[in-house]
Design brief:
By secondary structure, the protein is of the alpha+beta class. It has five helices and seven strands; from the N terminus they run E-E-E-E-H-H-H-E-H-E-H-E. Helix 1 runs parallel beside helix 3. The chain binds magnesium ion.
Length: 159
């Protein structure tokens, strides 16, 4: 059996008055992620996990933030592109697990919407997609509400 595991990690700073988009879902909040794209830190970590499993580098290599065509881009478009790379390399996605670290707002009410959106974008069943959220007990940049981080793990199987 040919299986591959990949890990991803991403951080974005938070600033007042920006949109907060996580796993392709816009969440009502006073702050959003500072970014060249829509700042979907969760999708960026998931993309990096897939690219890591394939040893194809990272999202910054694939979609440089110096490239104007990615300015303000919906990160689900980037994720779809990475999923196509997974397929063209002969793999399918077994499951995704990610953890978003953010002090506020409470993400629990949005978790199932985020899982459903990822299921749509990635094209795998929702019960193969886990989205978890944690505060950092007010410690660190996440706890001070200066930023948000996400870690993600994916498993790929040779199709
Ligand atoms: Mg990012």
């Amino acid at each position: 059996m040919d299986i591959r595991i990949g890990h991803g990690y991403d951080v974005h700073a938070l600033a007042e008055g920006l949109r907060l988009v996580l796993c392709g879902v816009e969440i009502e909040h006073s702050k959003g992620c500072v970014a060249h794209s829509d700042g979907d830190v969760a999708i960026h970590a998931i993309c990096d996990a897939m690219l890591g499993a394939l040893a194809l580098g990272d999202i910054g290599k694939l979609f440089p933030d110096t490239d104007q065509q990615y300015k303000g881009i919906d990160s689900t478009v980037l994720l779809k592109h990475v999923v196509e790379l997974v397929k063209s390399n002969g793999y399918s996605i077994s499951n995704i697990d990610c953890t978003i670290a953010m002090q506020r707002p409470k993400l629990r009410p949005h978790i199932d919407t985020m899982r459903a959106r990822l299921s749509e974008v990635v094209g795998i069943a929702v019960d193969r997609i886990s989205v978890k959220a944690t505060t950092t007990e007010r410690l660190g940049f996440e706890g001070r509400e200066e930023g948000v981080s996400t870690t993600a793990v994916v498993l790929l199987m040779k199709a």
